[in-house]
Automatic annotation (TrEMBL):
Keyword entries, A-Z: Capsid protein, Virion
Ranges of Low complexity composition bias in the record: 72-106
Name listed for the protein in its UniProt record: Spore coat protein CotF
Keyword Cytoplasm: no
Region (Disordered): 62-106
Pfam families per UniProt: Coat_F (PF07875)
Gene3D superfamilies noted in UniProt: 1.20.1260.10
Length: 170
């Protein structure tokens, strides 16, 4: 069921910011999936990109004055990550260290993951701010749902990095 809402000017500005951030996330995940050497990483990035597209659709609905009902897809992202880990070959750590290049840009899988992890930390923080700025509890719930999925994206990247020896929390 979709509920109609009237947004304040500030709420519209906050959603426009989130819309821009979601568009950048989609672009990064798509580009980095093409650059990634490891098939396991490609799978994680493509899965996260699909959820970012859902987030953008949700933000656009909010901007049009409609509050969508949220279905949880958090489990599908972690399931996809687990499936890709099981399917990956023993060469993943070797391939993840190779350099990917596109148009003169070179980055290792570790570089791609590091940038995406920083991006997810930032985007999650901006959702946190937005959640506190909205008066409608239904909208806050929707933004909270998206924020949790952003955190799951960061977690999937972190777990991948840790499993490949790219990140050590010590």
């Amino acid at each position: 069921m979709i509920t109609n809402i009237t947004l304040t000017t500030k709420e519209k500005f906050l959603l426009e910011d989130q819309k821009t951030e979601e568009q950048i996330c989609i672009q990064k995940y798509a580009n980095y999936a093409n650059l990634a050497a490891d098939p396991e990483l490609k799978s994680i990035l493509n899965s996260n990109k699909k959820q970012e597209e859902e987030h953008l659709n949700t933000i656009n609905q909010l901007l049009s004055g409609k509050v969508p009902s949220m279905k949880s897809s958090q489990g599908s992202n972690s399931q996809s990550s687990n499936n890709s880990r099981e399917e990956s070959t023993g060469n993943s750590s070797q391939s993840s260290q190779s350099k990917a290049s596109s148009g003169g840009f070179q980055a290792s899988d570790k570089d791609l993951c590091t940038d995406l992890l920083m991006t997810e930390k930032y985007v999650s923080g901006t959702y946190n701010t937005a959640i506190f700025e909205f008066k409608d509890p239904q909208v806050r719930d929707v933004l909270n749902h998206i924020q949790k999925e952003e955190q799951k994206h960061g977690e999937s990247i972190y777990k991948y990095m840790e499993s490949q020896g790219m990140y050590s929390p010590k």
